[in-house]
Design goal:
The structure is a homodimer of 467-residue chains.
Chain A: H1 7-14, E1 22-23, H2 26-32, E2 46-48, H3 53-66, E3 70-73, E4 90-93, E5 100-104, E6 109-112, H4 118-127, H5 144-150, H6 157-160, E7 167-174, E8 179-182, H7 195-199, E9 207-215, E10 224-230, H8 236-244, E11 249-256, H9 257-265, E12 278-284, H10 289-304, E13 310-313, H11 317-328, H12 330-334, E14 340-345, H13 351-365, E15 370-376, E16 381-387, H14 394-414, H15 439-452
Parallel strand pairs in A: 2-4, 3-4
Antiparallel strand pairs in A: 1-2, 5-6, 6-9, 7-8, 7-9, 10-12, 10-13, 11-12, 11-15, 14-16, 15-16
Helix pairs in contact in A: 8-10, 13-14
């Protein structure tokens, strides 16, 4: 439940920002105190909407003086509660800082405020004959500041890398209230520690991103999409190898038949009549006729080996988009079932053995639950969604998932994997951080936090607890 | 002058490592106390050659206890004196840690000790049908550990990025003696601050790199090379744009006629009879016939505009290699003249205005000096070599270069540039760091140093001085 904001807290904030941009009403507290995770009750004390770097700096300095906890807030599409305010914090929403500030065709770069929506940046680049390649299902709501704070990945990582790879400049306000102007759009700059990379993926715990310069690139030429039906889990990596060696892949995505069932139930057309336990979606550059020949050769080879039992290829951009819905609509189609999500990664080479182990583990531990598998398998990244049985209450369900997590993450640790591939740690993965980062590393993380945020005012309690 | 090593220091080190791998002889001190910079007199107290991570940890712990300064040493090809030991330090050479430990064809990754020579890694990848794309003239001597410690760039950055972009795992021993195993080869891993990126480019001041996992990629298909003659500096960026919009460039390199003269004097064949003030070398993927058509279209367009006055294109791999020598042999051809090097970068869009300003500046300030220009202009990165007049002594020459540096770096600062694009800071650029990183940033760099190396034993005095 949201609390009424203390009048003196609001009054203090209103000395910094106009009254209309300091909100304490229940609706705003409820909407801006949460993200796409559904297991926390939002309870911020206030929500502020700065419109300039100066205002962000003033807010941070005020927070230092008053020992207020600040939670940065973007598109609130996060899945690890990194932007949840459930402890009376002040939410700093960047949604009013949403201007595109500069574009340079020679540098192929764009400078933006943090509240620019991912899809708007993609469209802005496209209008200029260029391409911003970080892409994922939440593109219509997520904001660039949040993408950077979580080092967002998504569906094109196999070809274009992560958000980290596209940030050539970053302005941040640290927990000391300092404004840092990092790297300024340079391609090469070997002048000491690259602080830019420290802030990328730091989930707002070291500084708030107030401006970013992003590189753009040449758009891919006419990508084509295939969806293939696989009879067995262990065929996935063989199919991956067959396509990767012949084509420039831009995506290699995986989903199981349960996921397909939920998407088809929303009215997305079936790719083919065949149903199989698993499917992959392959996207590749179709710049030359020989690319299509190579794709068909891979398809025939995989079929001859028995790795695939059916398949379809897009003949138009519209068909390609329709096939993508099979993969991209999964998250939304599962949402009504309040899935408990795990977003894990292993090295690609470890994936077959790891998948076989957890498949057996889930069959044993979740006999009565519906478990849906999908993910960016070409990056070794798997999303596992456990659907809440309709008659279970949320707390009991989460506790049961946490019990199985111990078994899952012990397996993951043996395979050298990550408990959060791309969703970040936030609150949701905090209890499990030690399965990926050892105690010595976490001590260094805490020491870095103390350097940039010595008063502990920036997104406190996210990623790790204070020592 | 090198000093005789104190007997007790050597005795202490020999309790950790066998006697043959703890050297105090004058030859070893002289050879291992310096890099390719020539303005410092090597004066280490000892040189040690560990062969394992355990030995490196033991050395660091010993250094903490005895307050010894340690200087990491790789191929010693650095140009900023990052690996110079001129203050009685103990040099830790990684040349005996030169094994390739693991290769995985599915992950397309290789795990190496830090002393593996760059060219050996490139060859190892090639033998397996893969490609390690970081490449530069010192490839035959430089080592992977040094490449990572300086975030080496080189000639393929325009297409493949920097060393940073290829490191998927890193083991480091910090200045506290802790062994950190960072990222372990994962593609996606969103579990808190990415310490890996903090160590990349930190020049051995935060930790010593003891193992690395590097990604490999698909080799480029039959790259073709053009060398073009340009009548004027301001044509460079126009030619760049003409080629970039039509082709997938893998290199776009620049050099002036003085540089060409030095290379031709070594017996490298001239590309064509024409001499012009400036030249560019363009390398591009020649995977399809239409790529060559596009290259010729760019060539014709540039010629029609008067941006180029002559040109040649490779018809074979051998010819491509010969053309590359025009660019790659520059450094070696200048070496006898003890050049004072500046390795600077600006945003590509800023390059024309910046180049015009420094061209005028140098004409005014260096009227009697020979100034040679070359660089990775497609990255905004220019190497400027001022050749020492034969009759000047080194100290007077360096002092004169430092005087002009103030003017150069003031210009650079106005254009938002970097005083070290890819050579690092070391000792050479330390006095100029403030032209690229502001005082507040440098304070944070110092604070990070204190976290990872609180005793100040790792490469002390490099990048910045203690507060």
């Amino acid at each position: 439940m949201t609390q009424p904001a203390p009048a003196d807290l609001l009054a203090g904030l209103r000395r910094l920002l106009p009254e209309a941009r300091v909100r304490g009403d229940a609706d705003t507290l409820a909407s801006h105190g949460k993200d796409w995770t559904r297991f926390y009750t939002p309870a911020p004390a206030a929500v502020v909407f700065p419109v300039s770097i100066d205002e962000v700096q003033a807010l941070v300095r005020h927070a230092i003086a008053e020992r207020l906890a600040l939670v940065p807030s973007g598109g609130r599409t996060g899945l690890s509660a990194g932007a949840v305010a459930a402890q009376g914090e002040v939410v700093v929403s960047f949604e009013r800082m949403n201007r595109i500030l500069d574009f340079d065709a020679v540098d192929r770069s764009v400078t933006v405020e943090p509240g620019v929506i991912t899809e708007n940046l993609q469209g802005y680049a496209r209008e200029r004959g260029l391409f911003y390649p970080v892409d994922f299902a939440a593109r219509g709501s997520s904001q660039i500041g949040g993408n950077i704070a979580t080092n967002a990945g998504g569906i094109k990582v196999i070809r274009y890398g992560l958000t980290r790879d596209w940030v050539s400049g970053l302005k941040v306000v640290t927990g000391r209230g300092d404004l840092l102007d990092l790297n300024r759009g340079l391609i090469k700059n070997a002048t000491g520690y690259d602080l830019r990379h420290l802030f990328i993926g730091s989930e707002g715990t070291l500084g708030f991103i107030v401006e970013a310069t992003l590189r753009l690139t040449t758009p891919p030429r006419e990508p084509a999409v295939m969806v293939l039906a696989l009879p067995a889990l262990d065929a996935v990596m063989a199919v991956f190898a067959a396509f990767r060696e012949r084509l420039q892949l831009t995506a290699f995505e995986f989903f199981d038949d349960r996921a397909l069932g939920h998407v088809l139930a929303r009215g997305v057309p079936a790719p083919f009549a065949t149903r199989a336990p698993y499917y992959v979606l392959v996207e590749f550059d179709h710049a030359h006729a020989e690319d299509m020949d190579a794709a068909l050769a891979a398809f025939e080879h995989a079929g001859a080996q028995g790795w695939i039992v059916d398949g379809v290829i897009s003949a138009s951009e519209t068909q390609a988009k329709t096939l993508w819905r099979l993969r991209e609509d999964i998250t939304e189609s599962l949402a009504p079932r309040q899935p408990y999500k795990n977003d894990i990664a292993v090295r690609v080479s470890r994936a077959p053995a790891f998948l076989a182990e957890i498949d057996a583990l889930f069959a044993r531990e979740y006999p009565s639950f519906e478990v849906v598998w999908f993910g960016h398998i070409g990056d070794g990244n798997l999303h596992i969604s456990v659907l809440k049985p309709v008659d279970w209450d949320a707390a009991t369900f989460v506790a049961e998932c946490a019990r199985v997590n111990v078994l899952l993450f012990e397996t993951l640790r043996r395979h050298g994997g990550s408990v959060s591939a791309e969703h970040g740690v936030g609150l949701v993965k905090k209890p499990w951080l030690g399965y990926t980062r050892d105690a010595v590393e976490i001590d260094y993380l805490r020491a870095l936090k103390a350097v940039f945020d010595p008063h502990g005012i920036l997104n406190p309690g996210k990623i790790f607890d204070p020592a």
